Each structure stands twice: as structure tokens, then as C-alpha cells.
């Protein structure tokens, strides 16, 4: 009986791991639409046929993963293929900001623990 439980547990874990590896989830968890990808390419390339690493930096975290032909620049085909794989993000999604707006967003603030008034403070047991 014990051996059967071990075997079933192993099979379950193996199946779970296999499903996780074959997931079609984008690399960064965000899949942009085709129109978003095209719009980002137009914005990033500014009429150029290729992007340098510096130009791509706001949109691509791993330049070498996107630069499939290793020529040191990203063309539109490489950019769109990477976008379809979830390797491209809008510059606002990167978390990077110039910080020049000077306006605080009241919706973004440090998390608070509202349970402090409900849950008593934990103390170690007396010996």
C-alpha cells in the first residue's frame, strides 16, 4: 500500500511538472495583441528598419533572446516574433519611469495591515 501511494504521488508530480513546462503562457506573463506589437514597433523604430540594443531596452528585457540572427540589431520580424512569445512589453509595463511627472498617484501607496485591530498580537508561550 505504501509503495502504491509513493508511485501515485510521483506520477502526479511528474504530470504536473510536464504540464507546467508545456504551458503557452508568455514569458513575462503578458501577451500583447498584434496591434499593440505593431504600435510598439512603430514607436520604438521611429521609421528605422532595425533597433539597436539601446533603442530596444525599454521594450525588451533580454536582447539576445530576441536577436535571433545575432547581428546586433532587431528587425521587425524578430520584434514581432518576440512579441508573439511575450518577450516584448510596453515601456510602461517595465516599471521603469523617468520620474519627471512630479505627481504622486494616490492609488499607489504602501500596503497596510488592516487586520491589526482585529487579530491580537502573537506572543510566545510561557514556559
Features:
two-stranded antiparallel ribbon, 127 residues, Recoverin, domain 1, mainly alpha
Note down, in words, how this protein is organized.
It is a single chain. With 127 residues, the chain is mainly α. It has a domain at 28-90: Recoverin, domain 1 (Orthogonal Bundle), CATH 1.10.238. The chain is built from five helices and two strands, in the order H-H-E-H-H-E-H. The chain has a two-stranded antiparallel sheet with strand order 1-2. The longest helix has 20 residues, at 2-21. The radius of gyration is 24 Å and the shape is elongated. It starts with a helix and ends in a 43-residue tail after the last helix. Residues 18-26 and 94-103 have low confidence and may be disordered.
Give the SSE layout.
Elements (H helix, E strand, L loop, with lengths): L1 H20 L12 H12 L4 E2 L1 H4 L6 H4 L7 E2 H9 L43
Antiparallel strand pairs: 1-2
Amino acid at each position: 500500500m505504501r509503495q502504491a501511494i509513493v508511485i501515485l504521488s510521483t506520477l502526479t508530480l511528474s504530470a504536473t511538472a510536464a504540464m507546467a513546462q508545456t504551458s503557452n503562457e508568455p514569458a513575462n506573463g503578458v501577451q500583447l495583441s498584434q496591434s499593440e506589437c505593431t504600435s510598439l514597433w512603430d514607436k520604438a523604430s521611429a521609421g528605422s528598419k532595425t533597433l539597436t540594443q539601446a533603442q530596444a531596452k525599454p521594450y525588451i528585457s533580454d536582447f539576445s533572446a530576441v536577436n535571433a540572427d545575432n547581428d546586433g540589431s532587431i528587425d521587425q520580424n524578430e520584434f514581432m516574433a518576440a512579441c508573439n512569445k511575450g518577450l516584448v512589453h510596453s515601456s510602461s509595463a517595465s516599471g521603469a519611469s523617468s520620474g519627471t511627472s512630479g505627481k504622486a498617484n494616490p492609488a499607489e501607496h504602501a500596503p497596510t495591515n488592516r487586520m491589526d485591530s482585529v487579530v491580537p498580537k502573537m506572543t510566545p508561550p510561557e514556559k
